[in-house]
Amino acid sequence: MFDLVHLTVNSLATANVYGLANITISYFDMILDYLVAIVISIIIALILRVPLMPSDRYSFNVSAIFPTPIIAMGIFSFFLVLNYTFTFNGLLLAAIIGICSGLFVKYLFNYIFPSPEGGDDINE
Amino acid sequence: MNEIIGIILAAVICWLNFVIVDTYFGLPEQPGVKGARIIGESVKERKGDIAGGFFQGNILCSPDASAGTLMASIGYLVLGIPGGIIAAFLIFIGNRLCADPGYAGTTGSLTATVLIFIFSFIGLTPEMFIVGMVIAILTIQGIDQVRASIILGKIAEKFNRHAKE
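YS: structure for the whole thing
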């Protein structure tokens, strides 16, 4: 059964059914792309005046180091596993995703994932 | 590596990963939602530890590092390291839907991905981590909830995260 999963995903990626991928990129490029996505998303969030750190361990407010890079890395991973890395070995795609996730966290996040009623303290 | 030894080793690694991450992010300190408080108080009535009860209630009510470790193992099995990162992203969305800030689940998922990558060099496969994680959750929730809560309470005291009541 596990072989079937591998076979399906790998053949989809190799046959490139979902995208217009150019060539398969190396591990070095993947790591570089992740770093670019993380750094650019944090920088964009800071430029948009999102606070750098969450205020405490139970805070629902967004910040630059959480969840901005998580969203950037997650979205970039979807493109990576579908083998759609676009030009410049994925660097351009990583930069675009970084910018978009910074904008998303600043302007759309609280609309899509609002804090539970009653603000930060949701005890009962 | 032998499958049985690998599963036991993976269960221990998963147990340490999710208990340490969850305790560090304060699951035993307070119940996130009403259901977690009810479970905590029920465990306390049966002579368990209230902090361990809150821990068990919290990991039951929202996807924390326990679910993060399990989903990271599955993601790693299907898609490799990017699969583990996708699991962290999905866990974060799930956390927000369950009225949970999401620090513990996301961190646990990413640390689990790193651990699976490191231990793949000595022959532990993601399949072993999936089985190991199911066994690890069984020891917390399934076999003896009261004794498990006492152990979790002691760990919470070591991390200075015990419930203040």
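YS: worth flagging: The mean pLDDT of chain A is 82.
IM: good catch. Also The CA atoms of residues 21 and 84 of chain A lie 4 Å apart.
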